[in-house]
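User: Can you predict the 3D structure for this chain?
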Amino acid sequence: MILLIPVAFCTNALAENFSYMHSLKSAEKSIGDLDIFSRLENLSPDKVESLYESKGNDIQKLMTMRSLTGDSTGAAEAFRWRYFLSKSKPSIAQENQETLESVTAENALEAIVAKAKMHQIVILNEAHQEPIHRVFAAKVARELKKIGFNYLAGETFRPNIPQKPGYVDTSMGFYLREPMFGEFIRNAIKDKWNFVGYDVYPEGPNIADLAREREFGAAQNIIRQIFSKDPNAKVFIYVGYGHARKEPAYTDEKTYASLAAVLQHRLGVEPLTINQSDMFSHGDKETDNPVYRKVLERFPSSNPIVLKKTEGEYAVLSGRPGYDMEVFHPDGTMLSETGRPIWMQKAAGLYALAIPSELLPKDRRRLIQAFHVEDGPNAVPADMVMVEVGRPPKALMLPAGKFRLTYEE
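Assistant: Here is the predicted structure, written as structure tokens:
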């Protein structure tokens, strides 16, 4: 299939409020010389511990900025560094091995939608560095809208996000500056979701207090902005990591409970909670959760799946209680002839566009960006890719549409 994408050229960089290159360079400067990360296996245990303490947060920042600038492969590489330094490799518990022998696989999207029909609130999480999770979230959102869900609340949304934004721009939230997240929100705007920002960031010296106050404050904001006005609202909440867990259950305001647990207690409504932050590929079988690899071997699939137990409930094999379902993504980290991961074609349905020669850098590197022509100032790019002198340029990966191209350097 040949897709013709009309392109308007624009050589000035988007720079008004947020510069992707500036933020990436800042993360690269903080982490310093990357050479040491190619020699991690040769470091002494003391050096590994010291490196994790001194550079763990910097690796996280680099991982995030690589993801935001369209480099999911580079983000996965940074994840592997942090994973190795943290020495947190999981194993397959005996009960998980026994469960694996009796479960059946179901299409994750279909199973989630079927379960969602029995719930007023659906909470799906992500790993913040993984664009593929936003691709799946967009598909979930589209199907939930069809069955009556009308509020989309997101951890990343700024508190005063417009309920009906005209287009997705970089001021709406940090993580949605990533192209796949931007496309998720762009489609949600077209589907006429009501957007709700709820997150809070309390200040103080006690980390445990701050974590607890954040969950309680977030739940309070969701209740105030949605359920106090519309008690029968059907809400899709998109979060990072453990905010979606219903365990530990809420006991009192002095004890930690996640957003999901607090909402369940205060509303008397049990949310459907789904984990997709564990069972996916990091581009290295040694880094992937061993349960994940076992499941892929037993249930090869080109689509995300969930595992159903014989008694009808769904299996959660990550060792993290409090989720109703756990999504296993197919491994799409391998690169295609475009130089980009194959999930961009297979899961996201994107098409390759070669970068025009007049946009290629004359020296060093350049971040090439593609914007939907209908989007306004400070829009989130539909895609972006780093091009470096002396290396074959990777392709832009885009949906059908008309785009303007620009760059930052």
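The longest helix spans residues 45-68. The first strand starts at residue 7 and ends at 9.
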